[in-house]
Amino acid sequence: MYASKKADLQELESLSEKGLIDLFYGDESRVSSEGYVPYGWQFADEKVAVYVEKSYKTNIFGLIGRTSECHYQTREQNIDSAFVCRFLESFSFKIRKETFLVLDNASVHRSELLKQNLPVWEQRGLFIFFLPPCSPHLNIAQTLWRKLKNEWLVPEDYLEKDSLLYAVNRCMANVGINLNIKFSPFNNN
Question: How crowded is residue 26: how many other Cβ atoms within 10 Å of its Cβ?
Fold first, then answer.
């Protein structure tokens, strides 16, 4: 199944590269006031502290293409199936040609509500392609979240609820404009 799905994804990538379809990768992520520290170091006699406001978070559902075109929405509540469906409903009216969304198998992506909406979206030219299980490495949206948390947000952004929300929205609004990601070509190995 993995090999078959990967070959299908390669075909979608090829069609997108030729301009025959639009292709976006989607996923959700959370940015928390507790900060994102993937690694760190300090001198032996140096004290380091990251001051944060506890328990504040913003959740993001986003779509990104290999050209860094990005569509997103943030909210304080968890991302649920109803939210994803409202987002995709709105997005389905903005597409210019047949558009494929690559999603993982999260329960919010596989819900009955989403399945009920698929025929309507497909009539508008919006199709969902599900990745094979346990393959986040095939979803370039993961790179978007890593860049956001590890490079674009700075420690000062985490100091207050409002500054974090503003910084997340500022960064996301600038993806594809001032913040671009140079994605590697799809690897069919």
Answer: 23
SS3 129: strand
Pairing of strands 126-130, 57-64: unpaired
Q: What is the DSSP string of 5-66?
A: HHHHHHHHHHHHHTTSSEEEEEEEEEEETT---S-----TT--------TT-EEEEEEEE-T
Note whether 119 and 43 are within 8 A (CB): no
Structure tokens at 73: 């929405």
Per-residue pLDDT in tens (0 to 9) along the chain, 189 residues: 899 999 999 999 999 999 999 999 999 999 988 755 555 667 778 877 666 556 688 999 999 999 999 999 999 999 999 999 999 999 999 999 999 999 999 999 999 999 999 999 999 999 999 999 889 999 999 999 999 999 999 988 888 889 999 999 999 999 999 999 999 877 654
Helix axes 112-124, 81-92, angle to 10 degrees: 0
φ, ψ for residue 42, nearest 5 deg: -155, 160
